[in-house]
Each structure stands twice: as structure tokens, then as C-alpha cells.
Amino acid sequence: MHTAPRHGCLLDVLAMSANRLYTPFEIISDCWRHTGAMTVTSRLFEAYLKCSTKCFLRSLGEADTRNVYANWLNAQKEFYIREGLERLTEEALSDESGILPPDTGSLKAAKWRLAINLVARTRNLESSIHAVERIPPEGRGQSAKFIPIRYTFANKLTRDDKLLLAFDALVLSEMLGRKVSMGKIIHGDDQDTLKVKASALAGEALKLTGKIATLLSNSSPPDLVLNRHCAECEFQARCRQKAIEKDDLSLLSGMTEKERKRLNSKGIFTVTQLSYTFRPRRRPKRLAAKREKYHHSLKALAIREHKIHIVGSPALNIEGTPVYLDVEGLPDRDFHYLIGIRVKTAQKVVQHSFWADSANEEQRIWNDFLNVLSGIENPVLIHYGSYETNFLKQMCERHGEPPECSVAAKALTAPLNLLSAIYARIYFPAHSNGLKDRAKFLGFEWSVPNASGALAVVWRSEWEKSREPHTKAMLINYNAEDCEALRLLTELLGSLSTPAAGSSEHDTPCAVNVDSLPRASLFKLGKIQFQLPELDAINRSAHWDYQRERILVRSNKRLKRIAEKTQKPRRIKPRANKTILWPAPARCPNCGASKIWKHQKYSKTVFDVKIGAFGIKRWITTYLFHRYRCTKCGAAFQNHDRAWTQEKCGANLRALSVYENIDLRMPQQRVAIFLNQVLGFDLPRGAINKFKASAAAIYEDTYEKLVTRIISGDLVHADETKVNLKAGVGYVWAFTNLEEVAYVYAPSREGELVHSLLKDFKGVLVSDFYAAYDSVECPQQKCLIHLIRDMNDDLMKEPFNEEIKQLVGEFAVLLKAIIETVDRFGLKARFLRGHKVDADRFFKRLANQDYQTEIALKCKTRLEKNRGGLFTFLDFDGVPWNNNNAEHAIKAFALLRRDFSGVATEKGIRDYLILLSICETCKCKGVSFLGFLRSGGKDIDAFAESKWGRTRAVNVPSQNSIAH
Questions:
Q1: Largest CB tally within 10 Å, which of 79, 585, 593, 811?
Q2: What is the rounded (10 degree) CA torsion for 836, 837, 838, 842?
Q3: Kind plus residue range of the DSSP H or E element containing 89
């Protein structure tokens, strides 16, 4: 019987066993002794591989046989095992080999060669082994080998079958006191034999055994979770009924365990609770071509309101004659025995069913199917799910394709998977996305209640044994009903995809378009949705600008004069601060004659600023010059040796604009406002953007040299972030050492950019744990700040998990000692190498730990996977143990990104990155970015050594500083 747990847990036992080495079986036995767990049998082990709830219910001895498919599976297994053992016994008797009776107590003394139905017991483990083969010792001093044999009627084996055999070998090896490293699985219709190296799976089987012991030691059942195994489980009806009563999230078949746990951590445990979390959002135009992601919350909302919910405007255009396809087969045997198609013409609906008695007739029904398909005018194959997609591909490979350019070939190249057309676009009020649930919502019913593909497998098996016409007719009728359900669903989707879908005039009142749902604002001062148009009109009349411009000016003369002055701004012609008469050229550029005369008079006005030590002043310079004519050759020309360019604004004004936009992170609109209102210019916003583009073109060579110097050095910090563009999404990578910073744009987050830039880099790369960096062939240091933050998040998620607490605690002690050495001596390898021994000891202890909780196992795997990059800085001088340099550079871009996210183009982003790279490099070198822009130079190092650069950048106080 099931016993209640005593005080203590598995982690306590492992901690008590830390003083000496225990064998795995001694540790498991101590765990069972402390928890009072019952015996783990092979039947419980097999159930746990599928579902923990199934294992728990079996341990209590509960029986539920209402699942026809589960009963059929059990009967098939027992029949296959019985037949296999009989065949094995006959072969052993004919070979005059000794057969050990299953109830004997001696396994080593007798000269037996085969044991049938052997029950192996040891401590709290028990396994019913189908057969055990004993191979006599090959020589003197050697021991006999024991090979467990397990029978499985499936043609396709899974990892669970191999783990079950590994459990048999585990129990047998403990009972015999010797290692059992090999086992056999006899499976399939042809009695194929697969040799399995059980020793390779022994560790995993032992871990599962410990988890089963912990499960059975608890008096309360595990959390009920529906999964794919439910279709073949004897407790299907019981578990589903309880899940419906609880309104459990696992009723939503498409939800993963990770998503369910994330929702549970937020306090969402039921489908109804999840339905209230859906918020309709406007989809950006740049993502219009991408498919909308699947929303489980919208699925839950459809179930709660019992209405179809439509996302966007799904289009289902069928140009041709619809041919509804449904195939029945035996997946385990890769055999398709029934092809059903339903064709709807203008006159009637015709059903075709192609039946195969055996696998030899599969090609015949395929050819019959192609012949019928060729006789249909412009056929369009419509099916539901990937089973028919794989069927069409397999049949073309196995039995040949129809002739090219034929009607059938055209239909096979472009079949319509209705499930793909529905996914993430149309949400039905049903827990699953299967054809049965969706068709039942439309009112369609199958003639056999609870008909399913699994039940069809049972019917086919019964027909192969009895050959009764009634069973065959039932299968054909079931297939035809699937085709009819597919037809009804297709016609409904065709009507939903019309422009009127979701409207009140639509023929299907149960359909709701998500765009019509009210959008709840996150802000209190957001737009209010009024139910009556009269209330909306009254609310618009109370707007501030409406009141000022339409109402108050009619009743207040002062406000009227203010409004008139605002509407008609005064234009003041700026006065030049300095006028320069530009001299004439000495000779004619055409013939070289010195006698020239003035021809026409011109002027050029340059708007600029004068930046002094304590202020900024608008400065306008007017250049007066003439056009000249040569008396000898008659050529007309100007003096091309001039101090101005074609630009209207000067270099200092451009430098100031770029400085405010890049370094001070003022949006271009605000830069224009500042220059216009404070300095009296009349610049549009586009002028600020032109300043940025021209400055980026000037300093492009400086930027390229920065990138080259960084990747040719001995240390590179790298990080990346996303940026929204006007059309799509891009990524910005930051590469930096201790003095230079360079930002590089890439259209994707793939590692091609990193590989191309760092292909010849041989220094140390400091980065986060993004996998794109792993393929760079150079020493790497992973950011330990990222690691400890993730570890802390794990501790916050499971604060009572002693395993993760112990693991993180040991790593924290190790890292803290290293950081103390860094604080004392700096990043010098001769002081840090002494900690390598401590790091190696930590990883040795970690390798010997056998964690039971998922979060601790995940953390252990991550540490072992990145072991080579966690403590690289111990071997190099000047290599930091974190990626703060790159993160600081990314932060600078992130602050700038807020002003142009979603509106900038790819070229605009590249211009920003060139200037931001120079700005951040100037900060790293301690020089003024504005001073460098004003200097006119292009070499930051040369500027830093000049008299201008020696006047270092002024540090702007942070918001947290206190003024005294």
C-alpha cells in the first residue's frame, strides 16, 4: 500500500551521504527508507515515462478501462509477448538449451541458457523481464553474460522503449551483482531484433527511478496535466473530466509546459482566467506580411464567449473544383489503406473511397486516386493537417508521380492544408485545433460517437482478423464523414474570409472580428470609447485646442488678438554680423591674361554660430564677390578660391546640431526648435537631418579606421540589440575595447556579421551567452554578470529549492574570492591564476552532483556547457570578467534609439552609428565630441594630443548628483 512520507526529503539524504561515497543504489535505497516509498516496478516505470499522473494512479491500483484504444493496445502487447515467448521457447527446446523456470531462486548455479518471465527484485526495485538470455563464459576465470530481452509489438521504437529495457538491465545487474551492459528488443511484424547498449542509458534510468520514488512518497497526487499520451491511456476519461471541472490550462492542447508554468507564476491557472488577459493590439504596417503569432488567451476568450474570433482578414481563395481529401492508415506500419475524396460539383456531391486489403494493394488505390483526380476539371486538393501532406509526398516517392503538366500533377503540387489557413487567424470555441472539435461546433455529428483516428486503427485491426463487411463499411463511412466535415469547415471559412466577416450583417452571427473589439488603454487619460455618438460629439467639443480656437476667441478679445498674432508670425530678415568683399582672381583661368574686368555682382550669406568660452552666438557672414570677364579671350569666370561652399549653413552650426542630436540625445525636432527660438534661425527639421547625413559622410573614413583598430587588437567586447526601422527590424552590434567603440548595423541577428569581422581576430572576445559568438575561433570570456543575474532569477523563482540554492551558493563563494583578488591586484594573470585550482574543484564537484529538480539540472548543464569560457580572464592580463564595456556602449545607443525607433531608414541608422561611434570613442579617450567636430580633423588620437584636445571634455553631472 502507499505510505505517507516521513520527515525529510531526497536532498537531505544526499546531503547526509556527502561524507563518504555511496553507490547509486545505496543512495536511492536511503531515499526510499527516509521517504517510505513503495517498490518501483517496471509497470510503474513505463507509466512514468508517459505521464506522472498515470504512474501515481497505477501505484494506487486504480483501474479504468473505458478507453477502447488503450484496451486494444494492452491486448496487442500481451498477445505479441505471448507469441514471442512461445517462439523463443520452441527455439530453445530445439537447440537443447536449458530453460530456467520463472519462479526459481537460483540464477547463477544452474547451467540454464534462457529464462522466461523472470521477475527481478532488489531492494525497492522490481522488473518483470520477458526473457533473459545467459551466455556461458568464453574462457576460464570469466563470468557468464546476461542479456535481458523485451518484446514490443510496435514497428517503430521510441526512446521510452530503450529506457524500459535499461530499467530491466538495471534491476537485473543489481540482483546478480554484476554488470549487465547489453539488452535486446524484439519488435514489429517481422520480429526484428535491436541490440541496445543498456549501460549508456543506466544513468538516465536511475535518475527516473529516483523521481518515481519521490512521486510515490507523496500522499497527494501530482499536478494533472493533459498531454498527447492521453489518447492511449486507460485513465483518459477520468483525467479529462477532472481537467474540465478545474478548467485547467492543459485543456488547451497547443500550450507547452513552459508556457503553462509561466502563466501559473502569474496566478493564471484556468482557461477562464486566461481569457481575460487578451488585449487586442494594432498590428504595425511593417509586420503586415508576417503571420500573426498564436494567442492562447484569444483561444480562451473564444471558448468563454462561445464565438469564433477572427484575426485580421483571412483570405481563402479556391480557384477550381474543391476536392476534399482524407486518408486512413496505420502510421506504425507506414501503410495507407483507405483514400477518401469528396468532390462538389454544380449538380451534386460525389464521394470516392479507395480501399486496400493489404499493403500490396496500396499502389493500386494510389493509381485509382490519380485516375479519378485526372478526370476532374481544375481540381484543388483540400485536406486537414500534416498527415495527408506526408501521405502525398510518400506516395509520389513510393509509387511514382503523375505525368508532368497533367491535371493531377498540378493538384498534387499545390494542396491546401486547411489547418495552416486557420492557424493563428481563426479561433474556434474548442479546446483543441482538431477537425472533430471544430466540426462539432458547426453542428456536424459522426454516426459513431467519439469516433477518432485511434479508434479507426482498432477497427482496421478487427477487420484484418475477421474480414467482416460491417467493419469495413464502418471505416469507409467514417472516412466519408471526415470528408464531409472538411467540406463544411471549408465553406464556413470561405464565408468568413469575405469583407463582411465579423460584421453584424454576416450570415454567421457567432463570428467576431478582433479588430472590432474595444482596445483598453493602459493610461487614465487615454481615448474614451463612447457607446453613443452624441456623447462622442459632446466630448470632442471640450478639447483644449477646440475651446481656444473656436469658442473662447469669440467671447474674449484679448484671446482673439493672441490667436491672430500666433497665426501670423513676423518674419525678420537677419542682419549680417560681418561682410567680406572677396578679392578678384589674378589671371584668367582660360588664357592666363591679367587684364580682366568685373562682369556681374553676387553675394553669398552663410548662417553659422560662434562658440566662445562661455556662450553661443548666431553669426551670419555675407560674402560679396563678382563674376569677371577676360578682355583677351572673352571668357566669363569666378574666383574659385573661396571660403564658402554650396551649403547655406556653416561648419560650426552643423557641429552644434550633430552634438545636440547625438551626444545630448535631443530629437531632431527639438534641435530645430532650439536653434530657431534661441539663436533666431529659420531651419526646418529636414535641415537637421541633412546636417547629420553630411557629417556622417565626412567622418566615414574615421569610422572605418575605428572598426579596423578594434578588431585588430587583443581585446574585443561585443553585444547586440534590436532596432525598429520604418520597414522591418534590424540589429545593431557594438564592438569595443578599452578606448574605442564602433557600432555596426546588420539586417538580422545571425552570426554572419560577427564571423566576417572577427574571422582573423586572435585576441580575447568578451561577450554574453548568445550562441553566435561560440563559433568564433578565439579565446572567449563569457560575461559573469549575465550568469549571476540569471542564477538570481532562478533563486527568486524557486526560493525553497535547496539544490539550486546550494549550487548558486558554491559558485558565488568561488567568484567572490576571485573578485576580491581583482579588487586588490587588478586584472593581472600572475595573481589570478591561483584561482584556477578552485574553479577546477568546483566543476569536479558539480559533475558528481545528481540533481533532481529541473531548474538545478538546467543550471548545471549551462555551467558545464560554458566551462571553457567562464574563467578565461584568469589566464590573460587586462581581460575583464564582465561585458560592461559593450553593455555601456549598447546603453548609449538604446538612449538614442528612443528618438527614431520605428521611423528611421537603414541609411539613417548607419549615419547615426557612424557619429555615435565617434562620440563614444571621444568619451573613452576623455576629449570633447563637440570640440572634435569643430576642429575639422578626422583623427581622434591626433586631436587628443593637440592643444584643443588637451582641454578635456567637461563631465555633465548626473540626475542623482546634489548641488551645493
A1: 811
A2: 100
A3: helix 68-94
Q: Coil, strand, or helix at residue 416?
A: strand
Secondary structure of the chain: what % helix, strand, coil (to 5)?
50, 15, 35
Tens-digit pLDDT profile for residues 115-154:
888 899 887 899 999 999 888 887 776 788 899 999 999 9
> Count of CB atoms within 10 A of residue 136's CB?
10
92-105: string of b/e by CB count within 10 Å (b at 16+)? beeeeeeebeeeee
How far is 679 from 662, CA to CA, in rounded Å? Answer: 20
Residue 12: pLDDT band with limits 50, 70, 90:
very low
> How far apart are alpha carbons 805 and 178 in whole angstroms?
37
Chain center to CA of 177: 47
Amino acid 2 reads H
Q: Which three cell numbers stand for residue 719?
A: 553585444
User: Residues 481-505: what's their mean pLDDT?
Assistant: 75
pTM comes to 0.64
Comparing CA positions, the residue from 892, 946, 895 lying closest to residue 924 is 892
Q: Three-state secondary structure along 585-633?
A: CCCCCCCCCCCEEEEEEEEEEEEEEEECCCCEEEEEEEEEEEEEEECCC
Q: What is the pLDDT of residues 808-860, one digit of tens each?
A: 999 999 999 999 999 999 999 999 999 999 999 999 999 998 888 889 999 99
| CA neighbours closer than 13 Å in the CB half-sphere of residue 577 | 10
294: helix, coil or strand? coil
Strand order in the sheet with 308-310: 426-427, 308-310, 511-513
Which neighbouring-strand residues pair with 41?
A: 126
CA–CA–CA angle 206, 209, 212 (5° rounding): 160
What is the rounded CA–CA span in Å between residue 707 and residue 679? 37
Host H or E run for residue 917: helix 906-925
Specify whether the CB–CB gap between 182 and 196 falls below 8 A: yes
C-alpha torsion angle, residues 302, 308, 309, 312 (rounded to 10): 160
Closest by Cα among 354, 389, 398 to 373: 354
Q: Would you call 804 helix, strand, or coil by DSSP?
A: helix
